[in-house]
Amino acid sequence: MVTAKKNKNLVVIQLSGGNDYLNTIVPYNQGLYYDLRPSVNISQDSVLQIDSNYGFNPNMGAIKTLWDQGKVAIINGIGYPQPNRSHFRSMDIWHTAEPEKIGTEGWLGRVIKEIDPKKENVLTAVNFGRGLPRALGMRGVPVASVGDLATYGLFPDIQDQKLKEYALDAFAKMYGGEVKDPVMDFLGQTGTDALKGADILRTAPEKYESTIEYAANPMAQSLKSVAQVMFADLGTRIYYTQHGSFDTHSGELDTHAKLWNEVSGAVGDFYDDLKEHNKEDEVVIFIFSEFGRRIKDNGSGTDHGSGGVAFAIGGDIKGGMYGEYPSLLEKDQLDGDLHFNNDFRQSYTDILEDWFNLDAPEIVNGQFNKFGFIK
Question: Are 136 and 109 in contact (CB under 8 A)?
Fold first, then answer.
């Protein structure tokens, strides 16, 4: 019997704004947690218990179900040296794997280059959302960025087919031909790639068949789009999307509950879709945020902190808790924050070496020990 070769896909979900670690993986058996969080806490009787010490936020039911199946790795205390509480700088560090200087290349941009060195597929990576995350950015590496897959394409607002054909022809000629100037050459290649990518991606939704009903929110619909592209087998290997804002300075309990209900539910729907299409062993889902929140609440929310949590989910994930949960004791805090105890580039190294079979050091700018959360 010939075993079909598995595709290796990575789906990255960015929780933008700084997810509150303490209210995501809740240390519900520590009285100190409730002392430090008198207002913004998750009650003991509502957590979804992991063990006798920790539990999931009650709005993470779908992820808890996957945890019970051994499909979820919880990466505790994740961060980097000399934490920065700026959203922009901290996210930039995660995107470029450069904590000490301003990086010019995204870590996933380097991955795309390794996967497709000859640039044969303009859809090796697709971002679902507006703009292009720095993680995917690298000069000469094509990445499609899709706001709405259902209407994606060049000049989608032109209804008359003949006018649209004229516009597309003009676009192709504008970016075609021999161009000597390097800047124009770069722009020309970008335009040509966009034309090719739009043409190919437009076919994905019509090929998609599924019994899964995704929720009617942006997070779920983004993951439905991921499924549509993945199941169309267009050669895409990296999928990126984000959800937020997790910047919960006030009104946190309601906002955080809604956000995690959307993220967890979307992941659950997507995973069910993977199983329906026999692809659960072909995907790793990586969920991260730029930093955690302060240990003490501010009355109705929490402010920017450090020390966070990330998740890896998939059929080839060794479920469990990885990394030590940071201490809440004052002597162990970092200026009122949770003290990170593992570098985020360790998790990247797991994904790069054990999933994509790539050499990690040049991509993550250093040698880092792996957790071993991939089978």
Answer: yes
Q: Which of 126-135, 173-182, 206-215, 256-265 has the lowest mean pLDDT?
A: 173-182
Question: What would the pLDDT profile of 49-101 be if each residue is shown by its tens digit?
Answer: 999 999 999 999 999 999 999 999 999 999 999 999 999 999 999 999 999 99
Other Cβ atoms less than 10 A from the Cβ of 332: the count is 11
One-letter amino acid of 278: N
Query: Residues 6 or more apart from 294 whose CB is under 8 A from it?
Result: 302, 303, 304, 305, 336, 337
Q: What number of other Cβ atoms are within 10 A of residue 372's Cβ?
A: 12
* pTM of this structure: 0.90
CB 78, CB 311: distance < 8 Å: no
Nearest to 80 by CA among 337, 308, 360: 308
Give the tokens for residue 150: 């259902």
Buried b (16+ CB within 10 A) or exposed e, 191-224: bbbbbebbebbbebeeebeeebebbeeebbbbbb
d(CA 143, CA 124): 7
What structural domains does the chain harbor? 9-149+216-364 (3.40.720.10), 153-201 (no CATH)
Structure tokens at 353: 């070496």
